[in-house]
Amino acid sequence: MQFFGGSEISPSPPVPPASGSNAHMIYVFNRNGVCLFYREWNRPLRTLNVQQDHKLMFGLLFSLKSFTSKMDPTGVEKGNLGVPQLPGQGCSFHSFRTNTYKLSLMESPSGIKIILVTHPKISDLRESLKYIYNLYVEYAVKNPLYTPGTPIRCELFNTNLDQYVRNLA
User: Fold this and answer.
1) Which residues, other chains included, contact 99 with Cβ-Cβ below 8 Å and sequence gap of 6+?
2) Which domains are present in the chain?
3) Could you tell me the keywords of this UniProt record (predicted)?
4) What is the mean pLDDT of residues 63-90?
């Protein structure tokens, strides 16, 4: 991070080897903020309370989406800050990057939000998130044993997701 052209205070972490350690964690939320799926691959710092972690992540996304839509210079109807918007409404938010991670978001028309936290050097993940969403549809939604709105407990989804994420570069 640099402050007004100063020296590098906290450098970016080195690019990890291509061993699947580019992805740190993934969240899948429904439109109501219920975490349907969470998985960690490379998260050295563990959270004490998983439910609190999920609430913080959903709150962060809600705030960022609300903020970006209100800052949209082309939008005519801005509404009140904090008022939820329908998927596809307002300015779209895709990702942000810090010196230690990159957070990428994809929201489906049905309100499913997929959040992937990766190494900061990873490029645009929009197509990857669409592929992960297709895995979700194929192995969870189409599963006759899956009840929509409940946590995803499908081994085929887990296996295919792990295999795909291992190859992210």
Assistant:
1) 1, 10, 11, 12, 13, 120
2) 23-71+83-166 (3.30.450.70)
3) Endoplasmic reticulum, ER-Golgi transport, Golgi apparatus, Transport
4) 63
